[in-house]
């Protein structure tokens, strides 16, 4: 088993081989994503919404993220493991950001951390990189900025914003980022970012010209409870499958067809003879 490394991702970009990535939130999702063969597994802070039921990523704490990251670590053998820095864990000052990132490296076995933002994070990306913490950037639609963006909306649709995005990407690369995620931008814009950078550009809602794609695990398998965004494709129908199975379970219990005799333990013949007259 050959583990995926940051240089291996760079090599994929150089040879124009698409990079596959998924989020994972716990041991079973990590096992499944890793066994499917994805190159990169992200413990995304979207787990605040998909598995913790918050309505944005903002309430997620360091401790909550640590709990999930450690469970994912136990399920990943091959993929490169990246952990999202939660909102509030890297915005206060660079020293506390390095401390928090080091916790994910040391206590959760992360191989890189991801932080949101372009030019305003360049100095921090450099600082983390100097501390031997590989960094994945994240630009475009950055969900931790939901209140600044005024909702989850497609970014970089006009000339000025496109220029800004391209500059942000270049600044993150220059600061030492090992890859960047570009989320929620027009396909044509993401294509220009991927073209302009040497490091891999992993897209979500950013069209097919990126160097790789990432999806939220629960979106990809339909383990969600609302209509998906336009960019989501359902590659499995896990929610429907599970609900149908659970309803069958309830029926079987009510009809006393579960458990069957074959699903029950039995006494030995000798003991049975002694206690049954
Ligand atoms: O939290 C997350 O799931 C993410 C991906 C969508 C890139 O940041
Ligand atoms: Na995230």
From TrEMBL:
Provide the transmembrane region boundaries. Answer: none
Query: Can you quote the record's cofactor note?
Result: Binds 1 Mg(2+) ion per subunit.
Q: Extract the GO molecular function terms from the UniProt entry.
A: 3-methyl-2-oxobutanoate hydroxymethyltransferase activity
Identify the residues that bind 3-methyl-2-oxobutanoate. Answer: 45-46, 84, 114
Enzyme Commission number: 2.1.2.11
Q: Which residues bind Mg(2+)?
A: 45, 84, 116
What are its cofactors? Mg(2+)
* SUPFAM superfamilies the UniProt entry points to: Phosphoenolpyruvate/pyruvate domain (SSF51621)
Q: Which reaction does it catalyse?
A: (6R)-5,10-methylene-5,6,7,8-tetrahydrofolate + 3-methyl-2-oxobutanoate + H2O = 2-dehydropantoate + (6S)-5,6,7,8-tetrahydrofolate
Q: Where in the cell is it found?
A: Cytoplasm
UniProt subunit comment: Homodecamer; pentamer of dimers.
Q: What does this protein do?
A: Catalyzes the reversible reaction in which hydroxymethyl group from 5,10-methylenetetrahydrofolate is transferred onto alpha-ketoisovalerate to form ketopantoate.
Q: Which family does it belong to?
A: Belongs to the PanB family.
**Name this protein carries in UniProt:** 3-methyl-2-oxobutanoate hydroxymethyltransferase
Q: Which organism is it from?
A: Granulicella cerasi
Supply the source organism's classification: Bacteria, Pseudomonadati, Acidobacteriota, Terriglobia, Terriglobales
């Amino acid at each position: 088993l050959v583990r995926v490394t940051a240089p291996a991702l760079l090599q994929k970009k150089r040879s124009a081989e698409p990079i596959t990535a998924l989020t994972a939130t716990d041991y079973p999702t990590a096992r499944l994503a890793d066994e499917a063969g994805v190159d990169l597994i992200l413990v995304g802070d979207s787990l605040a919404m998909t598995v913790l039921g918050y309505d944005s990523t903002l309430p997620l704490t360091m401790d909550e993220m640590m709990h999930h990251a450690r469970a994912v670590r136990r399920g990943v053998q091959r993929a490169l493991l990246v952990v999202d820095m939660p909102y509030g864990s890297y915005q206060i000052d660079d020293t506390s950001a390095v401390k928090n990132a080091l916790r994910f490296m040391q206590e959760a076995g992360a191989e890189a951390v991801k932080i949101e933002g372009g030019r305003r994070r360049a100095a921090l990306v450099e600082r983390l990189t100097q501390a031997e913490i590989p960094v994945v950037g994240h630009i475009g639609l950055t969900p931790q900025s939901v209140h600044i963006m005024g909702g989850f909306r497609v970014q970089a649709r006009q000339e000025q914003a496109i220029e800004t995005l391209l500059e942000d990407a270049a600044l993150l690369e220059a600061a030492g980022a090992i890859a960047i995620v570009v989320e929620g931008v027009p396909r044509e814009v993401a294509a220009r970012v991927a073209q302009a950078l040497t490091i891999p550009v992993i897209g979500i809602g950013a069209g097919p010209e990126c160097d790789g794609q990432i999806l939220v695990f629960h979106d990809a398998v339909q383990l969600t409870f609302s209509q998906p965004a336009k960019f989501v494709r359902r590659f499995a129908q896990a929610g429907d499958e599970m609900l149908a199975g659970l309803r069958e379970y309830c029926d079987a219990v009510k009809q006393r067809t579960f458990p069957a005799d074959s699903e029950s333990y039995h006494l030995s013949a000798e003991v049975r003879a002694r206690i049954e007259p």
